[in-house]
Amino acid sequence: MADDRMADIYAAVRLGGIDPDAARAALTRLWDEVGEGGDPLHRCVIAHHLADVQELPEGALLWDQRALAAVFGPGIPLDEGLRGFLPSLYLNLADSHRRVGDFEMARMQLTIARGHLDVLANDAYGAVIRSGLGHVEAALDSRSMERLPVG
Predict the structure, then answer these.
(1) Nearest 5°: phi and psi at 42?
(2) C-alpha 147: how far from its chain's center?
(3) Rounded distance, CA 14 to CA 116, Å?
């Protein structure tokens, strides 16, 4: 069931703050279980969070790209659930491109993220994403490739 799967996904995500290796293993297992033809929302959320627990920026970029591909796969309708992830997905892509030194692509992804801000509510989550845009832009301005602090 979808609710059970999302509960499993978020249980694995919570591990990330305690044990990134365990989170990575649990999320990878879920990715394999959901499979290529699985629910796009599940695939998106798993890949989105797998990017966060990667040790290397190249790994994070790969998983960020997979998260976006899950949203825009062939025949996948862009419903509100998936559309609501777009600002965060593009923000994370921008940050991953920045961390691998592709500053031009990072700026393009930031622009796309800003173009999707209209889906965000004026709440704590929206504030986190909007703040993140500023942090990534500042890191780009200084040409930093360092991981940004979490929080």
Answers:
(1) -60, -45
(2) 15
(3) 27
Cα 42 to Cα 6: distance, rounded to the nearest angstrom:
7
Q: What percent of the chain has pLDDT over 70?
A: 98
3-class SS string, the chain? CHHHHHHHHHHHHHHCCCCHHHHHHHHHHHHHHHCCCCCHHHHHHHHHHHHHCCCCHHHHHHHHHHHHHHHCCCCCCCCHHHHCCHHHHHHHHHHHHHHCCCHHHHHHHHHHHHHCHHHCCCCHHHHHHHHHHHHHHHHHHCCCCCCCCCC
Q: What pLDDT digit, counting tens, does each position of 58-76 carry?
A: 999 999 999 999 999 888 8
Residues in the chain: 151
Q: Which residues are CB-contacts of 26 (< 8 A; sequence separation ≥ 6)?
A: 11, 12, 15
Average pLDDT, the chain: 93
pLDDT at 151: 58
pTM of the model: 0.92
d(CA 99, CA 55): 12
Q: Which amino acid is at 121?
A: A
